[in-house]
Specification:
- It is a single chain.
- This protein has a domain of 115 residues: Tetratricopeptide repeat domain (Serine Threonine Protein Phosphatase 5, Tetratricopeptide repeat, Alpha Horseshoe).
- It has 21 helices and 2 strands.
- Helix 9 packs antiparallel against helix 10.
- A hairpin with a 6-residue loop joins strand 1 and strand 2.
- About 11% of the residues have low confidence.
- The relative contact order is 0.05.
- It has 414 residues and is mainly alpha-helical.
- Strands 1-2 form a two-stranded antiparallel sheet.
Length: 414
Amino acid sequence: MYQDWDSYLLLNMYQHVLEDYDENPSPEELSQEDAGDDEKDDHVIPHSPSTDRKKCPKCGDSYTGNPVFCKKCGARLVTVCYPQTTINVTSQAVQDRAKQYFKQGNDFADCGKCVEALASYDEAIAIRPDYADVWNNRGAVLLQLGRHSEALASYDKSIAINPDNAGLWGLRGGMLNALGRNEEAIISLDKSLSIDPNDSEMWFWRGNTLLNLGQDAEAVLSYDRVLSADPTNAAAWAKRGLALIELGKFSEAISSIDNSLAIDPNNSEPWFWRGNALAFLNRFWDAVTSYEKSLAINPDDAGVWGCRGKSFAELKRHADAVDSFDKALSIKPDYAMAWSERGAALINDNRLKEAVASYDKAIAIEPNDAIAWSGRGLALLKLGQFAEGIDSCDKALAINPNDADAKRIREILN
């Protein structure tokens, strides 16, 4: 699904910042190196030689001697202390130590060991606080740990050290987008694009952010920039289609989404959006077909089942509509719209008592739903329960004085 695809694309973008060191030693190799460096490294508390077998406190692997790192899991075995005085970062030994921790962090990150990677990056920063690459990669692993605010702070540190790096501004923009801070995200993305105007990935995230802000026409232009560089970008075609739906350009939206599906037909959300565009054009059978394509990929999307039910209701296939709403509600029992629309379908199927019960469910979830109150009133009036029916219609009008159904019922009764 594209809501998950956005997260995947963001993670993928951040993954690119993890520098690829082919020459990086593994944690095991670092262990061997550090074991030999104990005597000359001023920052490691020396151990007295020992032939006793000991166990790693993390994984339980046994070892002898005084290695700094566990050969199996990479956990620290030797306590590292740092002098209270300011470290001279020009010292080659200190820089090498910081780089060693950086490389170890990258190794852990490559293995998916984000917590261990973070600890190694923190060790590197403790030695050398101006190490921009470490702040950068630290942000990436924090993102993967779901610690978004901390990741953003880490990228801010990296940008403060290296403010002319377009990629860093772009990463910051993508992170702000993920946090819902869209106005700030646009500023960061525009800064990135002012440095590198040809970065199509940043244009994509700019389009997403503009879409979130309701600036749909500008979003289309950003997606157009992506597609001019890469016409095979399925996500950009799909999101462009979504922006066009918001602009009311339904035929253009369908064309754009079709381009996306021609490239990648296995994502459910473009099929869903396509169904919505078709429904706006009153092409309800075609909409049902698109919704069913979406549900074949992701059968647990309550929203798609709900929209399928609405299309069936428009086609006067009321029993099919009720079945769709029932499926939506089995997935999401607090789906107020589905309860309300189900009530309308039940009225049209002459199942009036069930309709009242369905509206009651909708109102329990959303007490200010004027449509549910007026629909409940209509069902009660059809059942001959006039006082209660009028009361429901009056409640609908109190919420929305312009509710068409409630006004019509009141006019008839008057």
